[in-house]
Write a structure and sequence with these properties.
Order of helices and strands: EHEHHHEHEHEEEHHEH
Largest sheet: 5 strands, parallel
Shape: globular
Mean pLDDT: 91
Number of helices: 9
Strand order of the largest sheet: 2-3-1-4-8
Distance between the termini: 8 Å
Radius of gyration: 17 Å
């Protein structure tokens, strides 16, 4: 299975990608993980990426494309992969097609996760991260026993810059402008499948697996 997950920030792509990749025994290829690793490591790429990410903007294509090309050429991705966070625009989708052509491969399916926009704002702006252990809680869905104190280690909970409501709404604007056209692009290629991504995680996973089986 060679698949791509598409959907707005906060749709649960990372969670579903982790579960689906494990159940399908294929690697999850997430540009978000790569960017965060570079940011936390203080690399030059991380410094460049952080400036864009803190504003809710996208990291430039040339940086992302090179990382994805190298990753998909690795041995563990030869039998399939699940892409999360790439492509983010039609130009990247066209680049991905060229990368796969070079590797003698093609996409089997593109899974779109749909979530109401106000639900996304509620999901993301309510997140709080621990400065000490990186545990993530939510002011509505997983409130800490003591306000602003991590339930796991007692560290300080804070709101990440890219979880502020105004940044979340900007990220959604960027998604609609740059990433949402992928839906039409892949629909025209005949490999798009769409599910509602609201509800318990296991129910969303069941919908995703059924859609991938039917769409591949």
């Amino acid at each position: 299975m060679r698949a791509v997950l598409v959907g707005p920030p906060g749709a649960g792509k990372g969670t579903q990608a982790q579960i689906l990749a494990s159940e399908l025994s294929i690697p999850k290829v997430s540009t978000g993980d790569i960017f965060r690793a570079n940011v936390s490591g203080g690399t030059e790429l991380g410094k460049q990426a952080k400036a864009y990410m803190d504003r809710g903007d996208l990291v430039p294509d040339e940086v992302t494309n090179a990382m994805v090309r190298d990753r998909l050429a690795q041995q563990d991705a030869q039998g399939g992969f699940l892409l999360d966070g790439f492509p983010r625009n039609v130009a990247q989708a066209e680049t991905l097609n060229k990368i796969l052509d070079d590797l003698g491969e093609r996409l089997d399916a593109v899974l779109e996760l749909k979530v109401d926009e106000e639900e996304i704002v509620k999901r993301l702006s309510g997140r709080r991260s621990c400065r000490n252990c990186n545990n993530v809680q939510h002011v509505v869905y997983d409130p800490p026993a003591t306000e602003d104190v991590c339930d796991v280690c007692g560290g300080e909970l804070f709101q990440r810059e890219d979880d502020r409501e105004e940044v979340v709404r900007h990220r959604l604007d960027v998604y609609h402008e740059q990433t949402e056209p992928l839906v039409s692009f892949y629909a025209n290629e005949g490999i798009l499948v769409t599910i509602e991504a609201t509800g318990p995680v296991d129910e969303v996973t069941a919908r995703a697996k059924a859609a991938l089986r039917n769409g591949s």
